[in-house]
Task: structure prediction
Amino acid sequence: MASHSSIKTYEFLNQSRIESMQFKITHNGQPIFRSECNSTWKGPLTTITLPESTSTVLAACTAQSWGWSKNMNLVLGDPKHNKAQEAASGSELKRESLSEKRYTFAHDGRTFAWSRTHDKALGAHRWGDRDFVLVDESCSPPRVLAVWVNNMSSFKRNPEAVVEWFVELGRELELLSLAAVLAIEDRVRAGSVAAIGG
Result:
């Protein structure tokens, strides 16, 4: 695989509560976003907000229907307050494998995928199921854009996760990509908890 140089790093600092998974997202030590994953009566809801204003939702990922549907909806803005915006800016986040290995979504006529990776060259762990690489599948060959590395199951717990960006995506695609991978992380985490408990 070709080498990849990171152009920026987002760090995810755990601020979770019992009822939700929450992260403070920083860049160069400065807070830039806040994320929260909650279970609602319609299923999981993941939101990304400004760090100082949790009422201003920049992007979200929601369940498509009651309960744990296979696919989810990505949207710019707040889906609870603006159904017209959800229809105009939304994209389906499709689970392409039963084991949560690969999710795809479309934006501006291009197809992107968050896929599980164990590629140490990208900083991923050799074992585990919670590291993902973002790929632009509309390119030939597909182009690696970013990697999500989860440190929650390793000895390095601060930060709990990072996203290394290899390409500037633009604000909209970056927000959709973050909402997608956080929703995937929440689903994988919930599945692991259920497996341990069950």
In short: Residues 171-197 form the longest helix (27 residues). Confidence is low (pLDDT under 50) at residues 193-198. The first strand starts at residue 8 and ends at 14.
